[in-house]
Write a structure and sequence with these properties.
The structure is a homodimer.
Chain A (H helix, E strand, L loop, with lengths): L5 H11 L6 H13 L2 H17 L1 E2 L6 E2 L5 H4 L4 E8 L2 H10 L4 E5 L17 H10 L4 E5 L4 H14 L5 E4 L15 H9 L5
Parallel strand pairs in A: 3-4, 3-5, 5-6
Antiparallel strand pairs in A: 1-2
């Protein structure tokens, strides 16, 4: 025996495709599932079935949603002229949780990363361009991770959207709450100094 | 929006149950799947369906298998009187890969861990006891991880099986191949000294 039975190998291969899951973790998932009562596997199957059936992409902001347009795009209470552009659906939830934002969103579903083949056409950038062109957008907030991919996506969008008459902003940079000045990296500390404000 | 749509939350909850998978990883799995073409989700669903249908537990060694008895227990070429007792199916494959073992196995599906509620009755220990009692077993190899749970499971089985006339062994202890003496912990080095052999 140098391999598991085929059915086990097949499911290991499927789990192995999930982000950051290696072969060993995939094996552990399968053997965990094999130890569960059959209804547990059925529940997982049903849940996978359901996202396939029930979840679509909002034709306005491209976020995953049960409705199209999604609840945020359809809401009367949201400012339709401010768009916060994020890389992924998780970032929408993170910003929503602050309770500080009442505009709408646009989910790119990734950030630019040419070495990994993620060019502008792979992201929902055309959709953003069209949205800005056809509506009277006042402000675009570029809310990406402060890393190379995030910065270059910001740069690309800034260039792309500069012909339009709108304000383009990025998220503030500085010390994260709870972090220690002593351990802050130079760039973070430089940003915090540059963006210092009246106490 | 303080939560994802229900279908997404449901699948996050399912993935969240997998061993060592937290909420954030579970979210990433779901959004990864949502970005895949529908046939990919179907493949995963089919694979989960298949392990439920095709994989059973071998009634002799308790390992997961397509056949019952499994290929190893059914094989004419394996020594039925030597049983290597392991914690999990993955350990069977690891030992098989050495090509050095021609006996059979017994999978306990865990190790004793009273604080987490894993008592002897939760493991396939009764099945092992019965197997030893009813067959003329010559040797039991206790092949557990060299940690507290592994050692206490070994101890428990040694006590349980001592009334039978058989040899009980554990895996050799010492320096792992490729490890550095300088960084070996005291217990490993003590074991290596105790078990030193003619060069």
């Amino acid at each position: 025996m140098s391999k598991y039975p085929q059915a086990i190998e097949n499911l290991i291969a499927e789990f192995n495709k999930l982000p950051s899951i290696g072969r060993k973790s995939a094996e552990r998932f399968v053997f965990y599932l094999l130890k569960q009562p059959p209804h547990e596997l059925k529940t997982m199957n049903q849940a996978i079935e359901d996202i396939k059936k029930e979840i679509k992409q909002c034709s306005i902001c491209q976020n995953f949603s049960k409705e199209d347009p999604c609840l945020i795009c359809a809401s009367e209470n949201r400012d339709k002229y401010t768009i916060c552009v994020v890389a992924q659906p998780q970032d929408v939830l993170a910003i929503e949780k602050t309770g500080q934002y009442s505009g709408t969103y646009h989910v790119l579903h990734g950030t630019l990363n040419p070495p990994e083949g993620i060019s502008p056409s792979k992201l929902k950038i055309n959709e953003l361009h069209k949205r800005v062109k056809e509506n009277n957008i006042k402000e675009i907030i570029l809310a990406f991770n402060p890393d190379i991919e995030g910065e270059s996506t910001s740069l690309h969008l800034k260039k792309l959207l500069s012909p339009f008459n709108l304000k383009i902003t990025i998220l503030g940079r500085g010390l994260a709450m709870g972090s220690e000045l002593e351990y802050a990296d130079e760039v973070t500390l430089s940003n915090a100094l540059k963006d210092r404000k009246k106490a």
